[in-house]
Amino acid sequence: MKKTNYYSNAFGRLYAKTPKAVFAAIAYSYTSSGGDDPEHALERFLDEWRILHQNGIVHQAPPHSSTAAFFAGLPLNSPPSSPKP
């Protein structure tokens, strides 16, 4: 199974050193327009994943929106709770 792709390779060694949680935070920030539009973050994330999969960039197919929302532990289009200070 292929563990990298063109995009992960573009980060060089930083890709291997970056925790998955950091990539998730960056993805959430981008898909929620910097936190200004959190209600659409999950759907935008899945849309981008579908595009990457359809173009052969990633081999893993995204889950259906309702499945992703279930695994995220929230209803579709609900933002995650803010971290506690």
Give your account of this protein's structure.
This protein is mainly α. The protein has one domain (6-72). The chain is built from five helices and no strands. It has helices at residues 6-10, 13-17, 20-31, 41-54, 65-72.
Could you give the topology of this structure?
Layout: H1 6-10, H2 13-17, H3 20-31, H4 41-54, H5 65-72
Quick take:
This protein is mainly α. Helix content is 52%, strand content 0%.
Number of helices: 5
Q: Which residues form runs of ≥5 with pLDDT under 50?
A: none
Order of helices and strands: HHHHH
Which geometry do the CA atoms define?
globular
Structural class: mainly alpha
Strand element count: 0
- How confident overall, as mean pLDDT? 81
Number of domains: 1
Let me know the largest β-sheet: none
Fraction of residues in β-strands: under 5%
Tags for this model:
85 residues, mainly alpha, 5 helices, 52% helix, globular
